[in-house]
Amino acid sequence: MAEINIELLRRLCEAPGIPGREDLIRAVVIEEMSPIVDEVTVDSLGNVVGVRTGGGGPKVMIAAHMDEIGFFVSHIDEKGFLRLQPVGGFDPRVLIAQRVLVHGYAGETLRGALQLAAKPIHLLDPADIKPPKLEELFVDLGLSVDAVSEKVEVGDIVTMDRTLEPIGNCMMSKSLDDRLGVYVMLEAVRAATRPNAEIYAVATSQEEVGLRGARTSAYAIDPDISIALDVTLAMDIPGSQSHLQVTALGGGAAIKIMDSSILSNAKLVRHFRDLAKENDIPHQMEILPRGGTDAGATQLARAGNTAITLSIPTRYVHSVNEMASVSDIDASVRLLALFLDSAGSRDYAYDA
Fold first, then answer.
1. Which of 64, 123, 286, 351 suits 237 as a labelling partner, its CA being 20 to 30 A distant?
2. How far, in Å, CA of 208 to CA of 267, rounded?
3. Is 165 a catalytic residue?
4. Does residue 351 form part of some domain?
5. CATH number of the domain within which 130 lies
6. Sign of CA dihedral 169, 175, 178, 184
7. Which residue in the list 187, 198, 207, 322 is annotated as catalytic?
8. Considering the entire predicted model, what is its pTM?
9. pLDDT digit string (tens) for 66-110?
10. 170, 180, 205: which is closest to 42 by C-alpha?
11. 211 and 78 in one domain?
């Protein structure tokens, strides 16, 4: 049975860090990355860049974003209720009556209830029940306005209050998007035994608001090969037709052919596919009609480079119950580690 480092994944998933406020998750990444690379730096956009020197092979950049979707406090009303500015793409249908953590400027983390500014269901006529809107949400901290003002100010960050939990053969948590990608990157770099390539492992910032960290870090690194690690949709659930499922839990690592941001290099796709087949690593091919990853930015750095995304199938993305299979996580680590050991053994250039 596949095994993963649950405590490492828990530390990554439970650390707060929305776009532009990745301080606490960045500290976890630096601590975990430092023993497995030769140098760790943090650039001006907050990306963590770990460099593992090789034997003169190609420059390989791995990008996994460490930010999670969340909120800024945008207003504190006269009763102490908080209004929010979303940072990243939320579906309001999955947010009502959730618990959140407000990371106050005074240093205290406060638990609150995320509620809808509407009458309770007991007082509504059926015709008055409408789909929720993000602007209707507020946070109740259970405190007076004076107490709230002493602990919270506009601009403080708010994250979902959920822990990582094993469930069946899976892991369930908030922020598997994309702490799973960070986990796969760390474990694959650790597992690579003979890389000839120069490896740049980058925990990128601000992916959820426009691939910003990937864009600047790739420009600085100027890689020959760039690999984004991210979750992808596993639509193997009721209500989805089989030909639209994108990926399925338990089907293995997902080798991306295309999404809205990237057309993966066909020769690089073939290399990953061959490695998986030759080493009996479960895998599936992914075409994602909508959505993108850091590869959409890294691929276009400077004069461009050979790029691909390796995805971890995940159900219920952008909710507090994101779910991924332990065997798929393990397959993704093993496949990436094998690639790092073989990077440079093939030519990915287009024919002249």
1. 64
2. 28
3. no
4. no
5. 2.40.30.40
6. negative
7. 207
8. 0.94
9. 999 999 999 999 999 999 999 988 888 888 889 999 999 999 999
10. 205
11. no
